[in-house]
Amino acid sequence: MSASSRISRAARLLRWSLGIVPGPLQAPAGALLFNHLARGQAFVSRLREIDGRSVAIDVTDLRRTVCFRIDGGRLRAVETRAPDVVIRGDVEGFLRLATRREDPDALFFQRRLCIEGDTEVGVHVKNLLDAQEFDWEAHLRAVLPAPVAARAVRALRRARAALAAR
C-alpha cells in the first residue's frame, strides 16, 4: 500500500472518528491532546511568541470549526467569532501536515490548506508546523517518572534500531 493511500485511508478513519465526537467537545479535546503532546517539545517556547492570539481550525469536509487561544505556550479552547487567524482545509490536508507527509508550503500553495486573517500570526503558526520534528524521547521524559522514562527511551531506541535494520 502506498504512503498516499495510507494517508487517504487514515483520513477516512479520522473523518469518521471526528464526525461522531459532539461539536462542543472537539475543541477542548483537541486542546487537551495538543497540550499533552507538546510536553517536552522545543516549539513551546516559540508558541509563547503569539500568546493571547486566537487560531481557528476550519475542517471543511466536516463543516466544523474549532477555536483556540494561545495561553502560556498552551492551547485553550475558546468560543470566538473573530479569531486572529483561520487555517482552513480538509481532514486529509491537515493529516498530511500533521504527519509531515507533505511540505506545508506545498499544501498552502496547492490550496489544500489556506490561511486567512492576521498574516503575521498565520505565518508564525505555519513556520512552527513546518519546523516541528516531534521529539519522542523528550516527550517521554516530560510525561513519565524518570526511571520509567529511561526504560521507555531505551525501548524506543531499540525499536528504531530494529526498524532501521530491516
User: Which regions contain 5 or more consecutive residues with pLDDT less than 50?
Assistant: none
Biggest sheet strand line-up: 3-2-1-4-5
CATH class bucket of the largest domain = Alpha Beta
The percent of residues in helical segments reads 55-70%
Shape: globular
Distance between the termini: 18 Å
CATH architecture of the largest domain: 2-Layer Sandwich
Q: Work out the oligomeric state of the chains in this entry.
A: single chain
Q: How many domain modules?
A: 2
CATH superfamily placement of the largest domain: SCP2 sterol-binding domain
Structural class based on helices, strands and sheet pairing: alpha+beta
Number of helices: 8
Write the topology of this structure:
Blueprint: H1 3-20, H2 23-38, H3 43-47, E1 54-59, E2 64-71, E3 74-77, E4 85-89, H4 91-98, H5 104-109, E5 113-117, H6 119-131, H7 136-143, H8 146-165
Helix pairs in contact: 1-4, 7-8
Explain this structure.
By secondary structure, the chain is an alpha+beta fold. The protein folds into 2 domains: 3-133, 2-Layer Sandwich (Nonspecific Lipid-transfer Protein, Chain A); 135-166, no CATH class. Helices cover 57% and strands 17% of the residues. The protein contains 8 helices and 5 strands. It has a 5-stranded mixed beta sheet with strand order 3-2-1-4-5. The protein is globular, with a radius of gyration of 17 Å.
